[in-house]
Amino acid sequence: ADIARVLDRPVNTIKSDIHRGLKRLRPLLEQAVRT
Description:
This protein is mostly helical. The protein has helices at 2-7, 11-34. The N and C termini lie far apart (36 Å).
């Protein structure tokens, strides 16, 4: 909710942004752990 207030965006939008970001980051993180 704090992030949404700072960015002046709806909470649900922030949640979906975070979800999408994590989905894109996870493979990179797993790759980094593997090497």
